[in-house]
Amino acid sequence: MKNRLFLNIFVVFLFLISERLISQNETNSSPEIKRLISKKRAFNKTYGYGFRVQVYYGDETKARKIQNKFKISFPNVYTKLAYNKPDWKVHVGNYKTKLEADKALITFSEKFTGLIVIPLGK
Length: 122
Description:
Elements: H1 2-25, H2 31-47, E1 51-58, H3 60-73, E2 79-84, E3 87-95, H4 98-108, E4 116-119
Antiparallel strand pairs: 1-3, 1-4, 2-3
């Protein structure tokens, strides 16, 4: 008797779960969601993914000095020296969201000035 009751409850539970899983698959068929997904993909094609903090923009010698100073101050943060004729840029960090980059900018601003958050392009 107990086994039969348990089996019936289990079958009803499985039925309810399967209905919920099926209904979740229909969410992407909404035209609004499809429009938002295509809009996000277009944005990513234009602006790329993620953000970095720009520490310096100027001549090569000073850029290398600032990059070395930054590596000493924040050894666990990724640094990159980029050349864009005729100037050099020191970019630091790899952040998925602008909020993460802004938080890092506040931390870095204790030792460096003139910092800006830049989006990563493709």
